[in-house]
Amino acid sequence: MVMWVFGYGSLVWNPGFHYDEKVLGFIKGYKRVFDLACIDHRGTPEHPARTCTLEKAEEAICWGTAFCVRGGPEKERLAMEYLERRECEYDLKTCVDFYKEDDPLNPAVTGVIVFTSTPDKVSNKYYLGPAPLEDMARQIATANGPCGNNRDYLFLLEKAMHDIGHEEDYVIELANEVRKVLTESTTKKVTPVKESRASRVANKSKNNVPTAHQILPHHPEAVATTI
């Protein structure tokens, strides 16, 4: 018995389960999108993170990593139980063909399991759907959860795709927009206003002007007599 699982998000750099073989490659007919809510790892129910899911696209390919688990039903069960807990926001498991770079026409492995999600906000409560790039970037830049912040998830995916030699324009564009949001947020923080030299001199002169109390001698009796 052999089980294959395709990773296209955090599984690429952090599988978290025992596997016997890891192979770099791609699947056809799907593209990576940040349309799925995460409320227990990189976000919260009040402020969900945006994480990867797959969207069907006829001419698209999606690069990632396939993991093979060998050793019988018990070993497969343990791996799948872990994955189902971790990928709990994904409501579908789809079987796909997996291709390697040296033979893009013939599948290297068939029946590879990939976690996907129903692209419908009514039937799938975790599906956020598409949004303008700027809106997604603001959400990713500010979301945090028990396992860390949302922006690190995106930056780690960007790095992982670079490391395997298959950078993705969509991921890079979104990551750069998040960096832009973070930079703008930093520059908007209130900083102390630096006083000019002329202002310092003027304020110093103003502070050195004696008050009437300092000029007049203090004669309580005279004051009483005047009143």
Ordered list of secondary-structure elements with their pairings:
Layout: E1 2-7, E2 21-38, E3 49-70, H1 73-86, E4 92-98, E5 109-116, H2 133-142, E6 144-145, E7 148-149, H3 150-163, H4 169-187, H5 197-208, H6 212-215, H7 220-226
Antiparallel strand pairs: 1-3, 2-3, 4-5, 6-7
Helix pairs in contact: 2-4, 3-4
Give an overview in words.
Helix content is 35%, strand content 29%. It is of the alpha+beta class. The C terminus is likely disordered.
Could you provide a short overview of the structure?
The chain is of the alpha+beta class. The protein has helices at residues 73-86, 133-142, 150-163, 169-187, 197-208, 212-215, 220-226; strands at residues 2-7, 21-38, 49-70, 92-98, 109-116, 144-145, 148-149. The longest helix has 19 residues, at 169-187.
Give the H and E element order: EEEHEEHEEHHHHH
Largest sheet: spatial strand order: 1-3-2
Major beta sheet summary:
3 strands, antiparallel
Question: What is the terminal-to-terminal distance?
Answer: 109 Å
Question: Beta-strand level of the residues, as a percent range?
Answer: 25-35%
Specify the helix fraction band: 25-40%
* Cα gyration radius (Å): 30 Å
H/I helix tally:
7
Specify the overall morphology. Answer: globular
Average pLDDT, rounded to a whole number, is 87
Unreliable stretches:
209-227
Q: What's the total count of β strands?
A: 7
Task: State the secondary-structure class.
Answer: alpha+beta
